[in-house]
Amino acid sequence: MVADIRPLAAVLVSAVAIVLIVASHRRPNLREGWSVLAALAKFGLVASMLPGIMNGTVYEWSLYEATGIRFLEGLDFALRADPLGIFFALLASFLWIFTSFYAAGYMRGLDEHAQTRFFAAFAASLSSAVGIAFAANLVTIFVFYELLSLVTYPLVAHNEDDEARIAGRKYITYTFFGGGVFLLAGTVMVYWLTSLVQEPTLAFEAGGITALAEAAQAEPVYAQAAFFLLILGFGVKAALMPLHSWLADAMVAPTPVSGLLHAVAVVKSGAFGISRVILEVYGPGLIYDLPLDVPGIGEVGLNIPVALVAAFTLTAASIIAMRKDHLKRRLAYSTTAQLSYIVLGLSLLHPYAIVGALFHIPAHAFAKLTLFFCAGAIHVETHTDYISEMAGIGKRMPLTLSAFTIGAAGMAGLPPIAGFVSKFYMLIGTGDVGGSYWLFAGALLLSAVLNIGYFWPVVYTAFFESEDRHDAKPFLEFPRGGLVESYGDDAEAVADGGESETDRSEATDAADSVTAEETEPDAEDEDGDDDYEYAVDQYPSDADVPAGTGEQVSSIDHHGDHDDHLTGGPPAGRWPRRSPFAESTWLMLAPIAIIATGAVVLGIVPDHAVFLDLAVRIVEGVFGMPFDELEGVPFDQLLTEVSN
């Protein structure tokens, strides 16, 4: 282990950028330039440690070593770049680069209000996410975990309407108060348990904390309770059911927030925390050696309840996603399901399943970020949020919908996208264990079919249907999740949540009655405060509001010479045909194309992708032997040897 300031510098670089972003609030180009420079600097710092970590070096910065200050005996605020930490930090910092460009295009495209606050909070969020990645112990990860909830609240509530405020309060309640309390309680119990056998410690150790394993033999009930408290604490952000509902409501946030924070940093921090607990706090050996005694069933490993919850979540969330006509809400429930793949793979404890679970973190991140970027581009350019109004939109936005198809294939686990590789490893691990674990293999396969069920309608509607005659639900057709009638206008059509087409038309007519004068800000109100609405978009960004009827609105033009409308559906009944390079701005199209390409590259050459190599190294550290030697060891024997 080498003392190094780079883990701290990687955390602080975006914190410094906050000051520069706020100071440049009157110069948008400079403000967004600071965001891009901070992203590049953060990635550079993280990447500079990668060669050493691949050679077995671990970099650590400790407040106690630097200043002599620590909170309690054995309790230090420390940052450490190890294989698991660099895995998450490398992913988050790399994707922030492209999200910075995309966010600039998105926020400018909608002429959103409070953009300085948005970019400052975004930088703070990435600082917290990297802090979680490099946390060397449970107390450090708790600090950054809670800080992440606080700094992302302004992003969730960005629109400042009632819906956004309600979503923000729900987000804080679940993640800061709910998840934080569980995590703190579990941390205190681990600190107490380790103090029973030696100097108390909360530092992560590959394969599990040795002192905790010793204490668990004397106090198994408390060790079991601490395990489930930690899983619950991180499980809130990982959106495990029934702790998931905050995620769908948080989709009211602007799409860059939904993309990076709710597909990478926030939700992945929960999955990452669970990986720390399973691999480096308890370890597979202790989890296997500390079973629950369930009346009528017998002894059950601590991992089985976690695996059952994850299997239920990925199945139920996939079914719910099929009901959603609003694109971002469908993506939100897809995220809930996909995160449970990670938790399920980790909880199976098999080396192959763990590699698959870890590799699914970047596989899901690239594919889901592509999907959210595409949803945001569709909203900015056409103000269309409902799938049932996207018939033929592929000719208006061919590159965006082609990238969406790639991301959807990755979510379904189809080759050659990265999602296939991660799910294949998980299936191999599940099959190798055999026995009752086939139940989990069945859940993985069923969820893959359901993924196709809720993504195929989007692709089919966009590319294979015409605006005047289309099937709103080509895979399954029923009242929940789209228009009931495939063809014809005679019947009353019901949209997501039981809302009728008439209701949506009336809501749009009311919104369209707003004149251009009403959207112009007043110079100042009577008390001299310029607290008028800065956003000139008629509809709040990506809010789950009624879509329109596709009629052209000419009274307000937010996009200059753009000929698109402000309501959902094609203008004047038809989408204009655009070339792939003219459908949107390069600030949005370039990140979409690059991230979608990354999802393909990860799937085609996984052996040359650093993330798979890191996942293998993490597993080797946990089990204490080369990965190729793990193949020939029976599962029960392997866990017994690790436990001993």
From TrEMBL:
The keyword tRNA processing does not apply. Its main location: membrane. It is found in: Cell membrane. Residues 556-566 have a biased composition (Basic and acidic residues). It comes from the Archaea. Its EC number is 1.6.99.5. Residues 515-534 have a biased composition (Acidic residues). It holds the Pfam family Proton_antipo_M. GO terms for cellular component: plasma membrane. InterPro entries: ComplexI-like_HydComp, ND/Mrp_TM. The chain crosses the membrane at residues 6-24, 36-54, 84-106, 118-136, 171-193, 221-240, 260-282, 302-321, 333-355, 401-425, 437-463, 586-605. It is a multi-pass membrane protein. Keywords: Cell membrane, Membrane, Oxidoreductase, Transmembrane, Transmembrane helix. Residues 135-440 form the NADH:quinone oxidoreductase/Mrp antiporter transmembrane domain. The keyword Transmembrane helix applies. GO terms for molecular function: oxidoreductase activity. Residues 492-576 are annotated as: Disordered. NCBIfam families: PRK07234.1-1. This is NADH dehydrogenase (Quinone). It comes from Halopiger xanaduensis (strain DSM 18323 / JCM 14033 / SH-6). The lineage of its organism: Archaea, Methanobacteriati, Methanobacteriota, Stenosarchaea group, Halobacteria.
